Amino acid sequence: MIFKLAIATPLYQLFDYLPPLDIESDNIQLGSRVVVPFGRGNHKKIAVLMEITDYSDCEFDKLKRVERIIDQHSLLSAHDLNLLNWVSRYYHHPIGEVISLAFPTALRQGKAAKLAAEKNIQTTELSNAALTSNPAQQTAIDSVCASLGQFAVFLLEGVTGSGKTEVYLQIIHEVLKRGQQVLVLVPEISLTPQLEARFKHRFAVNIAVSHSKLTDNQRQNAWLQAQQGISPILLGTRSALFTPFRNLGLIILDEEHDASFKQQEGVRFSARDTAVVRGKLLNIPVLLGSATPSFESLHNVAKQRYQWLHLPERAGYSIKPVLQLLDIRNKKMREGLSEALLSEICNTLANNEQVLLFLNRRGFAPTLICHSCGWVARCLHCEANLVIHADEALLRCHHCGTEHRLINTCPACKTGELTPLGLGTERVEKVLAKLFADKTILRLDRDSTKRKGTLENYLEQIHQGDVDIILGTQMLAKGHHFPNVTLVAILDVDSGLFSIDFHTAEKLAQLIIQVSGRAGRAEKIGRVLMQTRQPTHPLLTTLIEHGYAQFANSALAERQAAQLPPFSYQALLSARARDAELPPVFLQAIIDLAAQVDNKTVLLLGPAAAPMAKRAGFHRYQLLLQSKQRSDLQALLTTLIPEVAKLKLAAKVRWSLDVDPIDLY
Ligand code: ADP
Ligand code: ZN
Ligand code: ZN
Q: Is the pTM value of this prediction over 0.90?
């Protein structure tokens, strides 16, 4: 008997071991954790049993023996192992590292799977009754409920406040009544206590919660409660996707367009796409929800792979925020605020309503420049400018974190006066404080909410109505609803218009709609003003005049004409090294390898310097693989990637593969 084990190493293989001597062979389950001696030093490692065979390519007397079996009963089911195998194959990542994704830290290290405290199993009790759903909600609920027990993917599209969460809650109730469990995935930042509170308010059951702000112990408890069937509901972020369940009946992914569902390091999986695969393996429905669906999902609706469910109006009333462009060409500006905007702010505040200002750049100003010689404060390690943080009197690189003291005289010409160029939230906050001295202004960005609990505290203040002007970064665009806000302004919409990454237009449109969705309620219409020097830009005019759906249609048509995803499939090979020579040579070697593989349709574009050619001291290059056929791209990668890992240069550069990349930077 040979055990084939997954061990967390960067190698594309399983490892063969002999079973422990005292084993009873019919008792051992696939997915069980075992302890093995590994490598030259025979250090103990935790491994997971993936297969049992009677054959090994290794010489028999070289085979080592499993020391101990940790789990008498595997914590992972055959479905779980299938899913992890799929992730390893599709994202071309070593299975040992993929398997690690499935376990919380302590279990990964071999600790026993014990719950911290015994919990009683609770059933489907409702503690509060559901709302009476409107016809659109009822259609959505009925459609998904009719598919319980079989695979189907639904895209629930509806603006913020249209009642999506209410739809989730009512469908979840049906799943619980069937005695099944539900996995609800949300983006990292929007897992606000409000959502958790809403679930707890509705269901008198044990709701497990898992996200990065919790301790390892808390996350392990949530994991075990789902695995043992103690929690009927698990609410979590991306990494909760691989949690095993006793009897999973439905997966919900809220804000499915959100970029945080794509892991950007390590195993670069898409939680959305992998959730769909999990639904298929388990034969259960998957429900994706968004006010601004991703182009991929809209495309899948058009192809009739996903069923489209629509909530066209805000629940209970039908007033949508009004979007307007504010042409600021040749207009007098005060630190990024036009006079027209300032007077709108005054009017809104005079009505005792709140204003929300959005600027997606933190810090005081993105550039420090010498007025006399043109010297610019650059990061030594990145191809990027240092950002001025006036409050802390620092210059900081937003890419590698390098910090310098803020200086007053130019280090190049020694005489020139240094001027901050451009706008950051700190700078706008200062001018607002001057202009609206008697008002309360709150800045919400990563700097101002660093301390634990600050964000929650700020959100509470906003809801209490203690704040007049809210100023923030994209943190504001996610999950929060501010009913007393009636004026939203996007200060610099133009910075999103020009980018070499084709995903940017989609992200900008989503951001605009998401930000605008934060505002207003029944008796108070929200207005959204966008300051621009490009008032005729087709992206902006289409979005404003025809809405997100029409915008997505025309943008998708452009992608089709250019043969870009979702009309083609991409994978991005990235390489970086301190030595600038190495990455392009390494990527060229990959091209040479690929030339030996039978390949009809895959284009290899590059090697080229990455859009950000240097970061944290590393020179970065990339090679883009693209094909009209997903299967051709996959076939090439399957042959290619294990060979790439064996290249001599692979040990000298840091390289990674991103299948279906959403960020080409
Ligand atoms: P979304 O998740 O799309 O932002 P929610 O489900 O949070 O929308 O609903 C927005 C608001 O409308 C909530 O306050 C919710 O209680 C209320 N609501 C939702 N559905 C209904 C309904 N059928 N009748 C009355 N109020 C509703
Ligand atoms: Zn100078
Ligand atoms: Zn840097």
A: yes
**Using a 6 Å CB cutoff, which residues line ligand 1?**
131-134, 137, 158, 160-166, 315-316
Atom of ligand 1 nearest to the CA of 134: 23
pLDDT(316) > 60: no
Q: What is the CATH number of the domain that holds 574?
A: 3.30.70.600
Q: How confident is residue 122, by pLDDT bands cut at 50, 70 and 90?
A: low
Q: Which two tokens stand for residue 289?
A: 């929800």
d(CA 441, CA 466): 9
What mean pLDDT do residues 462-469 have?
90
Q: State the distance from the centre of ligand 2 to the C-alpha of 414, rounded, in angstroms.
A: 6
Q: Are residues 298 and 355 both part of a single domain?
A: no
Closest to 650 (Cα-Cα) out of 263, 45, 94, 4:
94
Supply angle C-alpha 325, 329, 331, rounded to 5: 100
Which atom of ligand 1 is closest in space to residue 158's alpha carbon?
A: 3
Q: Which of 132, 157, 166 most suits a substitution to test ligand 1, by most atoms within 8 Å of the C-beta? A: 166
Rounded Cα–Cα distance for residues 28 and 43 (Å): 23
Does 330 share its domain with 306?
A: no
For residue 126, the tally of other CB atoms under 10 A from its CB is: 14
Token digits for 231?
Answer: 């929690």
Q: Tens digits of per-residue pLDDT, 394-413?
A: 999 999 999 999 999 999 99
